[in-house]
Amino acid sequence: MYLLARVERVSKLCENVNEYLLRLDRKLGSKPGQFVMVWMPRVGEIPISVAWEKDSLLKLIIARKGVVTSYIHNNIREGCRFFLRGPLGKGFEITQGEALIVAGGYGAAPMLYLASMLREAGSRVTVALGFRENRNVMLVEEFEKLADRVFVATEDGSVGFKGQLTELVSSILSSSRYDIVYTCGREQMMERVVRMAMNAGIEVQASLERLIKCGIGICGSCTLEPQGLRVCWDGPVFNGYKLIQVDDFGKWWRDASGKRVPLPT
Amino acid sequence: MAGGIGLGVRIASLDLKNPLIVASGVLGVSVGLMKRAEEAGAAAVTTKTTTLKERTGHPNPVIYELEYGLLNSMGLPNPGASEMGTVVRRAKEVLRVPVIASIGAAAPDEAVKIAEHLLAADAIELNASCPHAKGYGIEIMSDPGLVAEIVSALKSLPLPVFVKLSAHGDLRLVASKAIEAGADVLVAINTLKGMAINVWARRPVLGGVYGGLSGPAIHPVAVRAVYELYEEFPGFPIIGVGGVESWEEAVEFMLAGASAVGVASALRRGFEVIGSIVSGIREYLANEGFASVREMVGLAHRV
Fold this sequence. Notes:
The structure holds two protein chains of two kinds. By secondary structure, chain A is an alpha/beta fold. Chain A has helices at residues 67-75, 111-120, 140-146, 165-175, 187-199, 240-243; strands at residues 3-14, 17-24, 35-40, 44-54, 57-63, 81-88, 98-104, 124-131, 149-154, 161-162, 180-184, 203-207, 223-224, 229-230, 237-239, 252-254, 260-262. Chain A is globular. Chain B is an alpha/beta fold. Chain B is built from nine helices and 16 strands. The chains are: A alpha/beta, B alpha/beta.
């Protein structure tokens, strides 16, 4: 039961990150924060968050990371096929008001879609993006078109604020009032952002990543303890109240055997 | 007890508050998921099949959703017996319902080594029927003598032994060998071996090529298996598994001869399905004038 998609355009966003514009044989019907499973026959199947969708057009932003993503970067050109299933999981809940989006690296991928939905809902949107260095910076201009304010942090200071994204977020939170914080990126970063927002009494939602196998909540390989929350089905987006009770948040994940192991840094 | 209806069943030494057990495969190695199943009303939970050493399972895709069921090729991923022992001990601290530990082994001494790590469980279930892991499951069922040897070896431990059978192979012969060797409960059936090919990719979909079919598609096959086992071994405890999505399939299994019923694939629609199956069984019993769930076991066999 795979959806067939045809690649209309491949664009390079920054080093090792490409954007694929796909035409589907039918509308997907996703919400920001939901994901699709992308199957490359003979190679494998991986979860990718939806970066944008309209009518039968879909954008996926794919970073070169493992076997399947490297295959896509090396082999998939305009006119090639994608096999997809989804949309899967629960996405972000749109809360009207003053919104802050915090995205690290290619965690920015689903956030442009979220920002456009927030704008449609009448929210004011501030965006804080963090990257390692200049060659990892992506989507800043696109966010600038959509958002009211965009801040960028790079660890080496080559673009914007010099330092960690969490330092930038801390100063943004102390200078303005927000109703909601949305975050996606490295889990250690998100854990700090969730705690900052919770401490400031601000609602927060974070999108988690785990090893996804079935994608439909049946195999247990992406489960968080002790609540038994399945990232693929109950998530990948969870609110802060849930996350601060999750032992695994920012600390543990599961390897392919299902064993809990320290979260990769 | 609500409405005076006895929903409880005793199977081997396990007291179940109702006939609904979560079957192996869907709870991963997660104590949290087991707890959610218990809170949703399950009377017992079964762990994912444990092998002696850890297995990472097959590469993705591991699942293929169909209108009438699921095809899976997980390939028995599990963290190995020692780690699963820790999970089972933790589960026993957190849960009040029985925990059944599923094991996969190709030889008697290997089975005993695995089970020795799992003695905190309430029962051992020998998976003699997984269709997509080489050397385990279905392949051992093609050798009824081996199933008997493994069961007999497991009986040296102080836990009841369940044997999960496949509808492939000689069901009655394997069951009789297992019972002779001391098996306490028969579980029928596991998934059926199948595969899917994508016509556009012109390739098998599943990373493991072959998978196990579950869900509504296999229910009639499972009912047949339970019916045949009950006919051959009247009164012997059977757990019916395969395509239970509502109370009706559960009742059907019990009428065919199952004392208890397993659910697995139905949980893809959420854990709430457990509660609705249990309350549906209760309502059926009340409306049809049964005092207890035990009264309907095997009733379809009466002439």
